[in-house]
């Protein structure tokens, strides 16, 4: 039976560091699933720093969708623990690739993309469970900040909040990090 650990917190709160430390503690053959896309210099720098912070012997799979075919990757098959960093970037990527005009779209379009995002999350959890892998999922807590002033920001916050609640309900352990201090909340 696979184990799910969820780590949440605000931006630069220490989530990734906690995820990496938990992975080192719990796994031997670790695969890091990187969900980010290097779309600008700032993101390229973040990716570089994340790569430098984790052990070089960890395998990396760059992926934010189509998790049913992750089983074709030998590193996944050989792993005993998966570290996915981060769920909110995965959600962002899926929202943006939908090419929806978020300022003028209908609620049905938003509901459909949210359904697709949930399907991706469920596919990931099903594959993890089927192949008896443990997973640590890093995600941002997006509901404690300022209410977004633009529609896409509100849509993202709402979907990410519901995904986080869902993942927390599936997880055996949930941690929140604040100023680099982790707290176990489940």
UniProtKB/TrEMBL annotation:
- InterPro entries under this entry? CobU/CobP, P-loop_NTPase
Enzyme Commission code(s) on record: 2.7.1.156, 2.7.7.62
Task: Summarize where GTP binds, as residue positions.
Answer: 9-16, 34-36, 51-54, 62, 85
Write down the top EC class of this protein.
transferase
Which biological processes are named by the entry's GO terms?
cobalamin biosynthetic process
Known catalytic reactions: adenosylcob(III)inamide phosphate + GTP + H(+) = adenosylcob(III)inamide-GDP + diphosphate; adenosylcob(III)inamide + ATP = adenosylcob(III)inamide phosphate + ADP + H(+); adenosylcob(III)inamide + GTP = adenosylcob(III)inamide phosphate + GDP + H(+)
Involved pathway(s): Cofactor biosynthesis; adenosylcobalamin biosynthesis; adenosylcobalamin from cob(II)yrinate a,c-diamide: step 6/7; Cofactor biosynthesis; adenosylcobalamin biosynthesis; adenosylcobalamin from cob(II)yrinate a,c-diamide: step 5/7
Q: Which NCBIfam families match?
A: PRK05800.1 (NF004469)
Q: What is this protein called?
A: Adenosylcobinamide kinase
Species in which this protein is naturally found: Gottschalkia purinilytica
